[in-house]
Amino acid sequence: MTASSSSDIAESVNSETIPRPQKRKHPGRSRIKIVKKPLLFPPPVSTRKRQYTTRYKLRVLSYLQHALVPLGPTVMREVTAAETARRFKIPACNIARWKKQEKGLLGLLGTQHRNRTGKQKWPAVEQPLYLGFLKRREVGKVVRRGWFRATAKSLMLVHYPGVHFRFSNGWFSGN
User: Fold this and answer.
1) What's the pLDDT score for residue 81?
2) What share of the chain is helix, strand, coil (3-state, %, to 5)?
3) At what angle do helices 81-88 and 92-100 cross, to 10 degrees?
């Protein structure tokens, strides 16, 4: 036997008779590579709004400032105002105006419902209640919801004797 014939036999034995181990298949669907996955945005708002609360405006501005959109498999970019407008189904000019008003909107948060300012339902109760709250906090006392409820009830009996007052969460939070 010659050297060339023995190497031919070794090659044929290696490639034909020795089985190669196959990769073990995992159960379930095959994985899609991240490069082939479609880039999906969160679903947009389903209906158009015409009136916007302060809280909603600030939510839109927060999305505009903090949301990131995938630009590729590993790269993210900030959302544009036009994309935010499409997602929330609002005119882009509203977002530009709200960006200019952002400081003022932050000051109004929790004091407005549907952007109405200066309308207190019980002004004779709310002003003394607020002043009492400030006095207790200056002294360093803890002010809990129960204190607000009891003080508001007693003030209602003094200023509005025939009116039934309900201490609701909406009234307490300013909505």
Assistant:
1) 92
2) 50, 5, 45
3) 110
